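DM from R.C. (forwarded with permission)

"hey, sorry to bug you on a friday — could you get me a structure for this? deadline for the figure draft is monday and I only need the backbone to look sensible"
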Amino acid sequence: MATFTSSLPDELLEKLSKLAKELKMPKNKLIEKALQLYLEEITRAQYVKSFQRANKSQEILDMAEEGMADYFKMITDLEKE
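My reply, with the result:
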């Protein structure tokens, strides 16, 4: 595990210290968890943005419809067996 050193505004550090005491959790673990959650949220936001762009693309829409037609055919064929 790598070591990372950073500065925080006093007010934020005070909030962090208070919450860490309340949760009986080391500050570094609290920061680690908060950062993980934040990075996951950014990734989700990027996916949403990507899907919104794809939604406006006729080429993507055509590919999706073609894929759904193939999927429907596969299901229909399985039902016949």
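R.C.: lifesaver. The chain is about 80% helix and 0% strand.
me: no worries. Residues 10-80 form one domain.
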